[in-house]
Amino acid sequence: MQVSVGEPLANYVRQNGLDVKVDFFGTVPALTQLRQDKVQLAVIAAPVGEQPSTKEFTVLPYAYQVAYILVNTNNPITEVDRDQLIGVFGHGARRRNITSWSQLGLSGEWTSRSVLAVTTSSATGGAELFKHTILGGTGLKPSVQESASGSTSRRW
């Protein structure tokens, strides 16, 4: 974190002539110093569900874990947009219900093939992030299957 945050921050401070002291001493000490009004800003790392209270602090997301959309190597699709992802995974009346690869623009042998949507378990946090940022807080549609993160025992 120090390299990914520290260097750009130092450049910004230098370019803008700001008087800022930067220190990387960890999440717990940073929260303690915030509570004691010894610092004005802290970048912290906290697992989903363990973020500091928004009643105590203004909490702004800085970064999330990366989410990947994977398809079989034989599948010719090269990109999907947000609306298509919502149609494949999302639950709710205001979305397209995408159930086949033809609805995503594929033709030939893919026209009649169904999309089998699989996500990691909600317990891993990735699915919750996806539901919040892509699906706008709506749930996954009932046909979406959940698999434990890193699980290799299930075959789809």
Helical stretch tally: 4
- What portion of the residues fall into strands of 2 or more residues? under 5%
CATH names the topology of the largest domain as: D-Maltodextrin-Binding Protein, domain 2
The averaged pLDDT comes out at 79
What sort of overall outline do the alpha carbons produce when their principal axes are compared?
Answer: elongated
Radius of gyration: 21 Å
> How widely separated are the two ends?
36 Å
Structural domains: how many: 2
CATH superfamily of the largest domain: Periplasmic binding protein-like II
Structural class by sheet pairing and helices = mainly alpha
Spell the H/E element sequence. HHHEHE
Q: Order the strands across the largest sheet as they lie in space.
A: 1-2
State the major sheet: 2 strands, parallel
CATH architecture of the largest domain: 3-Layer(aba) Sandwich
CATH class of the largest domain: Alpha Beta
What is the number of beta strands? 2
